[in-house]
Amino acid sequence: MGLLTPKAELTLSGIAVLAPGTKKPTLAGLSFALLPGQVLGVIGNSGMGKSTLAKAMLGVLPAAHGEICLGGATLDQYDPDQLGGLIGYLPQDVTLFTDTVAENIARMSTSPDEKTVFDAAKRANAHEMILALPEGYQTILHGSDSQLSGGQQQRLALARALYGDPVLLVLDEPNSALDSVGTAALNRTIREFRSSDRAVVIMTHRPAAISECDRIIVIEHGRIKASGPRDDVLQAMLQNAGDIQRTVSTGGADAQWV
């Protein structure tokens, strides 16, 4: 028997994570908490550990040190199938399968529940887009090499992440292929999701993706460089950028990016 459905309370306590085939931690000493109704932005340049952190929060990459808890229970206390239903994941590189749109949303279930599929698509603001396809939800996709644009594939993958009843969304570069209309739809999805006491984590290096965030964590070389309310962190980053520019313009040799 699985654990009861938890609240959207995610806590990381001093975690270190090793990427497959490595001995040096990709992430080290990370601690933070996320509460129901909150949206956390994890920002940093490529290669700084954001995707590794996303996989650790999914339980795909176990923590070598420290603990990751959802609703007070460590991730390994959940049955893997139950955990997969509790956390919706939109990966940076979207993968679609050769099957119908409905089955792609339903995570390749052989008998997807139609209402649950529709609900997920509507929550992802993808329902109208899908209805415009030649056969609607029964349109056959040919993997990621399909008739869908990159933005359409990303919105379909978001519907997949929302399928079922997740309490937490982990979105890795969720608007990388979206235009302004798609980004607005994504932001509506995030607002609606959080309004029901669920939580969202957004991994990104794009400023447009953090407009819905309450708090921001800046990751640099696998460690937390800054953390706090969104506007405070952004203001500090702008101030640092200004200080660096002034130092460079006066010939300072010790200027560094934060």
Feature tags:
alpha/beta, 258 residues, single chain, Rossmann fold, globular, 6-stranded mixed beta sheet, 4-stranded antiparallel beta sheet
Brief rundown of the structure:
By secondary structure, this protein is of the alpha/beta class. Helix content is 33%, strand content 24%.
Portion in strands: 15-25%
CATH class: Alpha Beta
Series of secondary-structure elements, N-terminal to C-terminal: EEEHEEHEEHHHEHEHEEEH
Mean pLDDT: 88
Largest sheet: 6 strands, mixed
* Radius of gyration of CA atoms, rounded to a whole number: 19 Å
Class by SSE composition: alpha/beta
Contiguous uncertain segments of 5+ residues: 244-258
The CATH superfamily bears the name P-loop containing nucleotide triphosphate hydrolases
What features would you describe in this structure?
The protein has one domain: Rossmann fold (3-Layer(aba) Sandwich), CATH 3.40.50.300. It is an alpha/beta fold and 258 residues long. The termini are far apart. The strands form three sheets. It has a six-stranded mixed β-sheet with strand order 6-9-10-3-11-12, with helices on both faces. The protein has eight helices and twelve strands. The chain is globular and about 50 Å long.
